[in-house]
Amino acid sequence: MQVTATGPQTIQKAEGESAILGCRYTVGPLDTGGLDIEWSVVSPDTTQKDQLLMSYSSGTKYIHENHALAKGLGFAAPDPSVGDASLSIALLSPAHSLTYQCKVKKSPGVDMRKVSLVVMVKPSAPKCWVEGGELVGEPVILHCQCAKGSTPLKYKWRRESGALPATATKDSVTGELKISNHSKSFAGIYRCEVNNAVGTEHCIINLRANKPPNRAAVIVGTIVGSLLLIIILLVITGLLYWKLSSRCHSEKEFSNDIREDVPPPESRPVSRHTSRTSSRP
Fold it and tell me: Where is each Ig-like domain found (predicted)?
């Protein structure tokens, strides 16, 4: 009995796809016993038993339903007794990222093969945006970011209408494209591609070259604006001072008028009864 290697020892697949784990075998002339095939999940802990997924014995296929990964399992060949015991898995998920073992036995012969399956998430469509005012003569940074996807993710920038600026620096890990001194010749459509082992996505962005504002006009405008602000503040301060002064002057005149208009207090007359009473001995 000899199990022959079919396909790579490690298989990388995208989430949602299907996979076939190869396990072809050749029966020796002395192998006359009954044919038994077992597919198991190899436990990473050597002290623990491997978990049986699927088996074939005496012409009957068995799916061990007690295992969480049993759904979607099957033999790739209609009849696994004719030399092909390959395993088929439909609708892969990250939970299928395990090491599997194929064991074929036909007494007295027995052989086995291990295959590692890595289920990865494809990159999602990235988002492109520009940091900076896209002004000529100023630095500009083009960003590209992917929200989902199994690592490692690699970013690549290219320009639709020609080569990237010679002075531009790009980072394949962060997805940044930095232009230190922007010019009109750098304007155009830029494309960012992000990929991993199982997929590729992209986004595009239109980089403009905006004319910077007239610095002299900005300076003059700033000075004129500052002077106008000072004048306005002085006018407001003067008005407030005039209003407060007028109010104080009015209150003072009103107080003087009150003092002049008030008559002196009248003297109380002496009662006759009181005078007569006091004159008695």
Answer: 1-104, 108-196
Q: Is 184 helix (H, G, I), strand (E, B) or coil?
A: helix
Report the distance separating Cα 41 and Cα 69, nearest Å.
10
| Distance in angstroms (rounded) separating the CA atoms of residues 22 and 139 | 54
Please determine, for residue 71, whether its predicted confidence score (pLDDT) is greater than 90.
Answer: no
Both tokens of residue 176? 């940044």
Q: Which residue has the tokens 């989430």?
A: 15
Kindly report, residue by residue over 183-196, the tens digit of the pLDDT.
999 999 999 999 99
Q: What is the pLDDT of residues 122-140, one digit of tens each?
A: 999 999 999 988 999 999 9
Q: Residues 165, 171, 175, CA angle at the centre, nearest 5°?
A: 100
Strand pairing partners for 203? 192
Residues 63 and 75: their CA atoms lie apart, in Å, by 10
How many domains in the chain? 2
219 assigned to some structural domain:
no
Specify the DSSP element, H or E, that contains 41: strand 35-41
Q: How far apart are the first and last CA of the chain?
A: 162
- CATH at 101: 2.60.40.10
Instruction: Give 216's pLDDT tier (boundaries 50, 70, 90).
Output: low
Question: Whose structure tokens read 């001072």?
Answer: 241
